[in-house]
Amino acid sequence: MRAFAHDSGLKVSLFVERISISVIRRTAGYTANLVRTIMAANLPYARRPSLNGTPGRMCCAITTSSRQTTGGGRLPACPCLRAPDLRSAPWEPGNRLRVGIHLTTTSTHEEARMMKSMDDLFYNLLEDVYYAEKQLVKTLPKLAKKSTSPELEKAFMDHRSETEQHVERLERVFEMIGKKARARKCDAILGIIKEGEDVMKQAGDGICDAGLLAAAQAAEHYEIARYGTLCAWAKTLGHDDALGPLHETLEEEKKADALLTSIAESGVNEAAMKEAA
Fold first, then answer.
1. What CATH number should be reported for the domain whose range is 110-276?
2. For residue 96, which of 135, 63, 129, 136 has the smallest C-alpha distance?
3. In CA terms, which of 22, 50, 204, 249 is 20 to 30 Å from 219?
4. Cβ(126)–Cβ(174) below 8 Å
5. Which residues contact residue 105 at a Cβ distance below 8 angstroms, ignoring those fewer than 6 apart?
6. Which uninterrupted H or E stretch holds 91?
7. Burial class for 90, CB neighbours closer than 10 Å (0-12, 13-18, 19+)
8. Beta-strand (E) ranges in 190-272?
9. H runs (alpha helix) in 42-186
10. Residue 56: helix, strand or coil by DSSP?
């Protein structure tokens, strides 16, 4: 009787295991279809950074408790894991299949770096301003070319030469604090530049100079605020050698802003009003 019961229990156990295999195979098949649907929809996704993947691709993590998998469905090959065909791996009792689909946003080095001290804040802001100055070096000649006022055109080109010196000073500051000179994307200056580009495209000749002046002064005010902060932080952190070049640039930005104001008040704004009338 005991032998019969044991035999019956074994048959029931094998039956349950076969059902489990069938369910796993169906689940794997459904998962494969889900992956194909997501890929066909071209949704934004990325590999997991921890797997050294390339941003913009899908990561399908396939793992089991004993590094074995069971067959049934076929997942698309994942370049980051080189997952094997599920049908090719043997099944062993006790194994569990776990399929994970990771849809993550791209994690860049800039996003991952944490700021934990005033030195980090200082370095981060230096990178922002360095990016802004390099963008303005490319933008100022475009503003000068679009200007109808000879005085305004000269002001833009003169400040372009100053801006090149600002870039060189920042590179010296990076060296003084023992950091690599690196530009960090600055959305603020890109927005200001975009406004200037819109003026160049949409404003008529009579009012264009006034619009260009406004955009240029927005950039100057941004830089004055940033260099003022950098000077204050350099003093707090004891970067006395860096304080000199930063303060020199701050004063030049203030002079450039004052010059633009005088040009606007000497006739550019009045000419724009007459054109509008």
1. 1.20.1260.10
2. 63
3. 204
4. yes
5. 44, 46
6. none
7. exposed
8. none
9. 109-112, 118-146, 150-176
10. coil
What six digits make up the tokens of 197?
């580009």
Through-space distance between the first and last CA atoms of the chain, rounded to whole angstroms: 109
Strand, helix or coil at 67? Answer: coil
Residue with tokens 């065909």, as numbered in its chain: 85
Q: Where are the domains of the chain?
A: 2-107, 110-276
Task: Find where tokens 């400040």 sit.
Answer: 159
pTM above 0.70, yes or no: no
- Dist CA 190 CA 120 (whole Å): 23
- What is the length of the chain? 277
Per residue in 138-155, pLDDT (tens digit) is: 999 999 999 888 999 999
Distance CA 69, CA 88 (A): 9
Contacts of 57 (CB under 8 A, 6+ apart): 45, 46, 47, 79, 80
* Cα(254)–Cα(6) distance, integer angstroms: 92
* Paired tokens of 69: 């998998």
